[in-house]
TrEMBL record:
Domain HTH araC/xylS-type as annotated: residue spans: 224-325
Annotated keywords: DNA-binding, Transcription, Transcription regulation
GO MF term set: DNA-binding transcription factor activity; sequence-specific DNA binding
UniProt organism field: Micromonospora endolithica
Protein name: AraC family transcriptional regulator
Gene3D superfamilies recorded: Homeodomain-like
Coiled-coil ranges (or none): none
Domain of life: Bacteria
Transmembrane segments: none
InterPro entries: AraC_XylS_family_regulators (IPR050204), Homeodomain-like_sf (IPR009057), HTH_AraC (IPR018060)
Biological classification of the source: Bacteria, Bacillati, Actinomycetota, Actinomycetes, Micromonosporales
Length: 325
């Protein structure tokens, strides 16, 4: 099975661009990104494929423009791919019938295990390719099995809008951060944010209710173990799955424990711990060589205004005042 996020993947942040004319060249470019794929038919003889992709840890953000009409068969991809059409049309063919997607529509372009058979008609689309590992990190179901997606279409129009907005936030916000590869907390958070949006957008088997074991494990001891883990490693790219492993309980038990005993979420606790680390760095920094934006990015805060607002609530002053004290 093709692994688009293998050790040979390109570096984080810097976009890679392909421009291919004709079926053979387009097929080679697509194989480099998506593994086994065969193009045929249509008007692809002299058409152009333009593909831009940027890596964010366990995720890719792709922008594909087909100035051609082609049929494509491929897969399995080895990862989850979520697509959003901006122009043109794509049709998925299967024994169960055909699915058509046009401008503005969001869909599951591929899953990790399934092959696909599609008809592409001069499409322009954005894709997010998510490794199974990052989907598992964002899921709340049992960690012992992979997440299964149960349908290719969003559960509601609101869910589709959530995906579109999340993708745009990561593309236009996180990827725009200077030297984003130097900020692993930003990169990890962005990949998990996309995975969480995919889980919220499409039907899947990860959204399980808390079990009796989860409720039993959601005690103060779990909160203490997770808090100790977070407080000892705020500089690491930590997921809720990592917290659960450190506490030797399920993800659902961690979430339930924090809600029950602290009235918050484990991710909010982690964010606050990093906010305090940013505060310490601002206190020690030289304002001639350090900016608030650099410190915020170092601790996983991509949005400057949100960081400033959260900092002011926590410490009573804007971060710029702390830096210039």
């Amino acid at each position: 099975m093709f692994d688009p996020l293998s050790a040979s993947a390109p570096p984080v942040g810097a976009p890679t661009v392909w421009e291919a004319r004709g079926l053979d060249a387009a097929e080679r470019a697509l194989r480099a990104c998506y593994g086994p794929i065969t193009l045929s038919g249509g008007s692809g003889g002299d058409g152009v494929l333009r593909l831009l992709r940027a890596r964010l840890g366990l995720a890719y953000l792709d922008h594909a423009s087909f100035e051609m009409d082609v049929d494509a068969r491929g897969g399995p991809l080895g990862s989850l791919a979520v697509g959003q059409v901006t122009s043109g049309r794509i049709t998925y063919r299967s024994a169960g019938g055909h699915r058509h997607y046009r401008a503005g529509q969001v869909f599951l372009a591929a899953t990790a295990e399934q092959e696909y058979d599609v008809v592409i008609r001069r499409i322009d689309a954005h894709l997010a390719v998510l490794a199974p590992a990052v989907v598992a990190q964002a899921a709340s179901g049992p960690a012992r099995r992979p997440v299964r997606f149960l349908g290719p279409d969003p559960v509601s129009p609101a869910a589709a809008r959530t995906w579109v907005n999340t993708y745009a936030y990561v593309r236009d916000g996180v990827l725009a951060v200077p030297d984003v590869a130097d900020h692993p907390l930003l990169v990890g958070n962005a990949a998990r944010l996309l995975a969480a949006a995919a889980l919220a957008t499409f039907p899947n088997d990860a959204l399980t209710e808390a079990t009796g074991v989860d409720r039993h494990d959601a005690g103060v001891a779990t909160v203490r173990r997770v808090a100790a883990f977070v407080d000892s490693h705020p500089d690491l790219d930590i997921s809720v799955a990592d917290m659960a492993a450190a506490a030797r309980v399920s993800i659902r038990a961690v979430q339930l424990a924090f809600r029950r005993h602290l009235g918050t979420t484990p991710t909010a606790y982690l964010r606050r711990a990093r906010l305090h680390q940013a505060h310490r760095q601002l206190l020690a920094a030289d304002p001639r060589t350090t900016t608030v934006g650099q410190v915020a990015a170092r601790w996983g805060f991509v949005n400057h205004s949100r960081f400033t607002a959260q900092y002011r609530v926590e410490f009573g002053v804007p971060p710029s005042r702390t830096l210039r004290r």
